[in-house]
Amino acid sequence: MRKPGLVLFLLFTTLASMVISCKQNSQTNEAQDGSVLPKPQPEFKGTIGATYKDSRPDKIAVVNPPKGAPNVLMILIDDSGFGQWGTFGGQTPTPNLDRLAKSGISYLRFHTTALCSPTRAALLTGRNHHSVGMGVITEMADGYPGYSGQIPKTAAMFPEVLRQNGYNTAYIGKNHQIASWETSIAGPFDRWPSLQGFEHFYGFIGGETNQWHPPLYRDTTPVEMEIPRGREGHYTLNDSLADEAISYIHNQKSVTPDRPFFVYYAPGATHAPHHVPKEWMDKFKGQFDQGWDRYREETYQRQLKLGVIPSGTKLTPRPAEIPAWDSLPPERKRVAARLMEAFAAYTAQTDYEVGRILDALDEMDVTKDTLILWEIGDNGSSMEGTLNGAYNEFASMGGVEEDPAYILKNIDEIGGPNSYNHIPVGWAWAANTPFQWGKQVASHFGGTRNPLVVSWPGHISDPGGKRMQFHHVIDIAPTILEAAGVQQPTEVNGVKQKPIEGISMLYSFKEANAAEQRHIQYFEMVGNRALYKDGWIAVCRHGRLPWVTLGSVDFDKDTWELYDLTKDYSESNNVAAQYPDKLKELQADFTTEAKKYNVLPLDDRFAERADVSLRPSLIAGRTKFLYYSGAAHIPENSSANTKNASHTITATIDAPKTGAPDGVVCAVGGTSGGWTLYIKHGKPTYEYNWYTQQHYKIASSASVTPGKNVIKVDFKYDGGGLGKGGLVTIYLNDKKVGEGRVDKTEWAVFSADETFDTGMDSASPVSTDYQSPFRFPGIVNKVEIDIASADLSLVDQKKVEVAMLQALLNRQ
C-alpha cells in the first residue's frame, strides 16, 4: 500500500509534467504560427542508420511566403508639402503620381510626425516615434527614453518580419535612423538596415546629402556613386537610386519569380539641397514669378477643382512672421523665384524617376501582383531655408545670414554642384497649401498632413477614389503585414515585442466610406503638440519658429487652439472659446498619451540639442588623433574636431618617384564647408572653405620630393569666441614654406554627412582647385592631428550664442 505522501507527490509531478507539456506545445504552436520569429527548426523526420544505405534523409525546410502574398513597393518622399505635387493641386506636374492615383486610392487625411527620422522610425516599426526613442532626429538624441535616437530591439521593423516569412527585402535611399555615434566603421551595426530586416541597402545615412556627390553605402561599405559614361553633369543621386531599385527588382525576379519582394524606396528628394540637372531647371524658368501669396490662391482653387480638399474648405492666411511677396525688393523676388524653380524641377525629376520604377514593374508584368504605397512627404515642406532662402543652407545653420546680393551673384549656379540651396520660408508655406505652417510644426497640418497614394490591382473597389479616414504613418506597418498575410509577432530574434501601435488601413481599401477606425492620435515635435480625437483636434504651436535654430520659450505661456475637423478640413476656424470643455478634455488626453508613449519631458530646443555631450561620442575628451594609411569615410562627428581651437595636422607621406604627386593628403567636409590639405603642382596647399562664400588658400613655396615627406600645418586660433579665424603656417620637412590667414571658421558642423578622409576627398570636394576624389598617387602613411584646449570662456560662448540668436530673430 502506497503512503498518502507518495501518492500526492506522484499526482503533483504528473500534473506538473502535463502543465509543462501543454506549455511547451503551446510555445511550439505559437512559434509555428509566426507569432515567434524565427520559427523553430523543424523536427528531423528521416532515419539515421550506420551508413547512408540504411538511412533516409528529410527534406531541408525552406521558408515560403504566405500564399498570394504581394510584392510591396513603399515609396517615401522627403520634405514635401500637401500643395506641392500636381496630383494634389500643386503647380508642378507630376504625371507618374497622377497615374498611380488613378489606378489606386488617395488618403487625404493621412499624417506624419512633422520631422524625418521620427516619421521613418514610426513607419518601419508601426509604433509612435517617441515609443521607439525617436522623438526628434538622431543628431539630437539625449538620455531620455523617448529621445535616445536608438530604436529598441523590442520594436522590430516590419521588414524583418516579412523577411522571416519568405520575402526578399531591400532598402534604397535615405536612412537617417542610426544614432550618430554608431555611423562609423566601429559600429555597432545593430541599427543599420542590414541588421534590421533588409537583405540589401544602397543609400546614405545622414539627414540629407549632396545629390551630385553623395557619400553612399552599399550595405555597410562606403562607395562612390558610379556615373554612366556620357552622363557627367546630368546624373544625380535621384538617377542612381532609381537605377538601383530597377536593377534589384530585375535580379530578384530573375532568380525567384514566385517569391515576393519588399522594396523600401526613400530618395533624398525633395529635401534640401535642391540639386537638379540644368535641363530640369530650364523647364520651370519664369514659372514662379507670381510669388507665394498668389501661388497659394491658385493652388487652393486647383485643389477644390480636383476634389482633394472638401468644398467649403477655407484657405488659411499667411502668418505675420512671413513677409508678403509684394513687400520684397526686385532682387529678392528674382532670387526667391529661382530657388523655387529648382525646388519644382527637383520635384518633377523625382516623379520621373519613380515613374521609371513603375514602368519597370509594368514591363515585367508584376504590377498586377504588387501593392504600392507612395507617401508624399515624411513631413510638410521645410521652413528651414530662412526668410531669404539659401545658396548654402549650412550658413544659416551656423547662424550666418547670407547676403541676398551674394545669392544673386551666384543665381546661375543654383541647383548645380557648387550650390547647397534651399527655398525661402514663404515658398515652403505655399507648398503646404491650404494648411498653416510646415515641417517641425506638429501642431498644425502644414507639418503633418501628407497625402498617401495606394495601388493594389484587384484589391481596390474604386480606382481613382479618395479616402477621408484619419490615419497616421504608424498604420502603414500593420497594413502591409495584413496584406501579406503575416501576423504581428510577439517575439522576434529572442526579444519580446511591444505591441504595434498602428492599425491596418486594409478595411478601407474596398469600402470608401468605411467607418474610421483610428479614434485618437497624439502629435509632438520640439514642443509643438496636438491631440486628435474623433473629429476634433486640440493644437498648440509652441513659440520657436522653424527657421530659428536657437532659443527656448516658456511652456507656461502656450496657448491652445481647438478645431472641429468634421466641418473644418484646413484648421481655419479656432473654436476654443466656444468649446472650452472639449479643449480641456483633449488637453488631458494629450497628457495621458504623452505619458504612455515617452513624450515627456517636452523640449523645444533645436541647435542646443546638437551638443555632443548629450550622447555617447567616439571622440569625447580626445585631443590627439592618429590616422593610418587608408583611413577614410570617417563621419565628421567621429573624427578629429578642429573647430574653435588651435591645432596641428602632421602628415607623413611617400610621394611617387615618377609622375605628378598631386592629390589630397587629408580632408574633412565638402562643398558646404570644410578644410583640405592637398598637393597641387607638387606644392602642399591648405584650403579652408567657409560656407562656400570664402575659400582661404595657403600654398607652400616648395615642392615635395619623391619618397618620404612630412607636411605640417599649424593653425593658431585667434580665440575670443566661436567661429573665429587663425594664422596658418605650413612646414615641409621641418622648413617653414608658407603662411597666411583664415579670417573666419565654421563653429558647428561642416555638413550633414560628409566625412574625414586620408589619401582622397570623398563625395563632394572641399576645394575649388580639384574634383573629387582627387586621390593621392603615393602613400599617406599616417596623419596626426593634435588639438589644443579650446580658448573659449563660458562668457564668450554665451555672448556668441546671444548674438547669433538675435541675428536669427531679426530675420522675422
Question: What would you say this structure looks like, in words?
Answer:
By secondary structure, the protein is α+β, with helices and mostly antiparallel strands. Helices cover 24% and strands 20% of the residues. It is built from 15 helices and 31 strands. The strands form 6 sheets. The protein has a 10-stranded mixed β-sheet, sandwiched between helices. Strands 20-31-22-27-28-29 form a 6-stranded antiparallel β-sheet, with no helix packed on it. A hairpin with a 3-residue loop joins strand 25 and strand 26. Helix 5 (237-255) runs parallel beside helix 8 and helix 7 runs parallel beside helix 11. The chain is globular, with a radius of gyration of 29 Å.
